[in-house]
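Notes, Module 5: Reading structure tokens.

Key idea: the token line is not a picture. It is a compressed description, and you learn to read it the same way you learned to read a sequence, by spotting repeated patterns. We will look at two proteins. The first is printed below with its tokens.
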Amino acid sequence: MKKTNPTVYNIHDVKHTKIYISKRINKTGLFFVCAALDPLTGKSGKSFVIRPETFDDGTPILPPYGKKVIAAARQVAERLAQEHLTTVPDKHTDLEAFLLESVWKEDSPYFKKRADDGHVVTVSYVRMCRRVLELYFLPWSRERGVKSIAQFTKPLADEWRAWARTKAEKAGFRYHSTVNMAFSALKIAFDDAVELELVPVNVMTLFKTRRIKEAKSVKAVFSDDEIQRILAANWEDPRAEAAFMLAVTTGMRLAEITGLRRDCVFSEKGTIDVKWQFAESDNRRLCKPKCGKERLDVPIPDEVLKAMDKLKFKRKSPYVFYGTNDSEPIKVNLIYKYFYMAIESAGVERGKRTFHSLRHYYAKKLRQAVGLDLASAIIGHATVAMTKEYDTVDARDLAQVRDATANILQFKKAVGS
């Protein structure tokens, strides 16, 4: 806890009472410890605390102090609080400006630093967090008159959380995830504020339970029979067909598939390296996979390798799934188009299932075959909540995975037949 040496103030209009006031800062924010000094002995009496958020609400009267002493002490504390706030650099004093300009902006100093440190930050994520703050935090902060970063203390954070929860419940239970994103966006911003020494502690880390409970969603997964029928369907585009086969036998995300380069495919070993994803929503650029996690030596069934080998001779693009322009891969909306056409052709009901549902299907099949830990390492999940960390994958593990993925394609007609 940061504190200053006590400053003695002579409050002349209250029987020459002398009061010492010490400025303190701890995890709850800024506050002042006050006490009167005995004019004869010089010892202090019982202390009392004044907080900036109670300036207008009054401070409880503690014996032996009267109303005039408390009011005078409050005036001094209020002046000291103003002096404290003015010590913060001007460009960071405004809470809204800090959130929207210094942190949650595509070219903000915070994300430039993150990129320099090798972290993956997509423009779409920045825009999303900025948007939820505009919807679920800034209207409240303007209404409450919270203008400075230092003013947003734990009591106000509690109040905002209750307000956001009520707003989410009125909008519908599914909006809880949006409020949770706003909570995370504030936590990230205040982490930066702590690092810049604008505040002593991140108030968003002081909650016992940070997230609002969300409705559990049942993931839409294809059945074995549906996968069999889609695999046997007539595909209009060989790139989309190969992408489907790759997704259903590796669990790769679509952005990772479109970002797959030829130099990451090792036909002789029967593996690929998942080192990149192509971010269409982030200035159409190649970047690290989600969570920054590369996956090396991912086993690929022979049928899938043959399907991808056929694509090599079509264009001179560095990407396996080439686009119209050799410098870029195929656009995801084209893969979606041919994927849904194949589903319709196979007589499979689409429902709420998307291309990403293939990842859920593969994860389910892999967990059944090799267990949770190994499945996590191969799929590339970041935490045990999604599956679990797995440190080493040996040759025997890879053989298990190869057998499991080959079985998924057991109904697939031979490529080229």
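Here is the second protein, with the sequence above and the tokens below, as before.
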Amino acid sequence: MKHKERTIRPANSGDLEKLLELYTHLHDGTVPAKENNLLDVWEEILCDRRQKFSGGTRLL
């Protein structure tokens, strides 16, 4: 049996869309209203040294 490789890395601005997809999966398909500044808020969170977010990929 072949094992799937996983990569853990710091989250980046490109992860927001997938994060929102996960949110909809966990919350009955509902998406919070996208505010005009949603990307700005995400970038601010990522730049905050007090917060650490990790993302991952699974290579098939």
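Summary for the second protein:
- The chain has a mean pLDDT of 80.
- Residues 1 and 60 are 13 Å apart (CA to CA).
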